[in-house]
Design goal:
This protein has 398 residues and is an alpha/beta fold. Helix content is 32%, strand content 21%. The chain has nine helices and 15 strands. The chain binds fe (ii) ion.
């Protein structure tokens, strides 16, 4: 019985510290503060493992076991009661995610094709000892790509029926993954012949990879433009203005904190960007492209036929509500990056935890898609394959 109680308490303990870890990553804390708090959280998280080992040693030695010692301590007892109570919502949340439908009704077709990306000359696409070591793990999907095709039905005019959007996110150019991997991902996006390309942040992690911008992002092709916002990892290049200029010089269009208005098939499409909480701008965004920045009304002006939001973090979905976007594209959470069998992912840098780790969600009238991303800071992925999202819009209007 004692083991059942401590097992429940352990589930609550993991739930509590994973939620703390996820929340910390959703904030704009400076890197050193986030890293130190991360270490603290991880130490708390693994604490029971040491106790379990102590338990085993005590058991073998016939002495007091760790649980008896914690149980005889008032603070230990109180903490175990709290974590046992936390275990209930932890399990309920986990079950609700498992039982809820995979995709909303607006996604009328879905297919995926998965393939490993190889270099044409047989050379390794992973660089550095860490990447090559992780690359040897048979479970590691870092060099795989899932091309996800989604047909979504939206309340947009017939003239936008058939509009094609390629969504790419979280490239994380670090040098661990060879630039040829990303060039092949871009080639696959181009073969879709998209009308719009959307990039939802975390493009370049390391200044050494700035030179890759032309051959990767500059190669993207889109009939009506390639639009991007920055993510938290883009801060790591140091000179963010220089990064932005290079991306613009490569042909990309920045929408962080602003609206862009374009005409497609005779109707107006507006695209806005949100880089909060890492870059300001979106907090001053007027409710529509033609209204003044000082506008205080909360009633959006419905003069656009379609409104698209690009946000690095899906956490901005509440901010998005008054704008009445039709579509929101986000990234940041990487699908948890490591997703355990049965349990699923446990880490996603979001204030919502794992709720929006990846996938498509109906948020009121807005359809939000959270990409697993093309890559990651560390070259390890398991059951959360790099993603290229190819969307075809269908009009729900007769
Ligand atoms: Fe990312």
């Amino acid at each position: 019985m004692q083991f059942v109680y401590w097992g429940i308490s352990f589930i609550g303990h993991v739930g509590l510290w994973c939620a703390t870890f996820n929340f910390l990553h959703s904030t704009a804390l400076v890197r050193w503060a986030r890293k130190s708090s991360e270490i603290l959280v991880l130490l708390f998280l693994v604490f029971p493992v040491f106790f379990a080992m102590w338990q085993l040693i005590g058991w073998i030695g016939g002495g007091d076991n760790a649980f008896t010692l914690i149980g005889s301590n008032v603070a230990g007892r109180a903490y175990s009661v709290v974590t046992s109570l936390i275990a209930i919502p932890t399990v309920l949340l986990w079950m609700s995610r498992k039982l809820s439908p995979k995709r909303p009704a607006a996604v009328i077709e879905f297919s995926e094709s998965r393939k490993r990306i190889e270099s044409h000359d047989g050379t390794n696409l992973l660089h550095g000892n860490l990447a090559q070591l992780l690359g040897k793990l048979p479970i590691n999907e870092t060099l795989n790509l899932s091309v996800d095709r989604l047909t979504v039905q939206l309340n947009v005019p017939q003239s936008l029926d058939g509009l094609k959007i390629a969504h790419l996110s979280d490239f994380h150019l670090t040098g661990y993954v060879d630039r040829r991997f990303f060039e092949q991902v871009v080639a696959r996006a181009n073969s879709f012949e998209p009308d719009l390309v959307i990039i939802s942040g975390d493009l370049v992690d390391k200044p050494e990879c700035l030179e890759w911008i032309d051959s990767i992002f500059g190669a993207l092709k889109s009939k009506h433009g390639c639009y991007f916002v920055l993510g938290n990892h883009d801060l790591r290049v140091g000179d963010v203005d220089d990064l932005c200029q290079r991306l613009k010089a490569a042909g990309l269009i920045h929408v962080g904190g602003i609206w862009r208005t374009l005409e497609i098939n005779g109707v107006t499409v507006q695209i806005a960007g949100n880089e909060l909480p890492w870059f300001s701008g979106a907090e001053y965004l007027p409710l529509s492209a033609n209204s003044s920045a000082q506008q205080t009304t909360t009633t959006p002006e419905p003069h656009a036929s379609m409104k698209i939001l690009i946000s690095h973090s899906p956490d901005q979905l509440k901010w998005a509500r008054p704008f009445e976007f039709d579509l929101m594209f986000a990234g940041h959470n990487h699908g948890g990056q490591i997703s355990f069998p049965v349990v699923g992912p446990i880490i996603a840098p979001s204030r919502y935890g794992l709720r929006y780790a990846a996938g498509t969600f109906q948020i009121g009238k807005m359809l939000m898609h959270v990409s697993r991303g093309v890559s990651a800071e560390k070259p390890i992925r398991w059951n959360s394959m790099p993603e290229l999202g190819l969307f075809t819009i269908r009009s729900a209007k007769d």
